[in-house]
Amino acid sequence: MKMLLTVQFPLEPFNFHVRNGKAGEIIARILEDIKPETAYFTEQDGKRGGVFVIELQSASDVPRYAEPFFLNFDASCEFRILMSPEDLENAGLEELGKKWGS
Q1: Which of 69, 75, 77 is nearest to 11 (CA)?
Q2: 96 and 24 in contact (C-beta within 8 Å)?
């Protein structure tokens, strides 16, 4: 299942890793391990952030993706299901509308 993983890095310990020259190395190791389809780094609510498209096979995959960010950066992680236009087309919205619409 394709997911959007949004990561927010608190200022510490990220600043510590930047100061000692390890932040880039840690991020590279994480990306090599989780192998996101895409990866972008951005600002989120005035803090450092990252946005990654990943592929989960089951819910038990969540720790594999989140723990490297938790353990290295005390980061927060949010997972959102992504649907392609084809996924949405196959969702059966018309039938759901007939069943649940007023």
Answers
A1: 75
A2: no
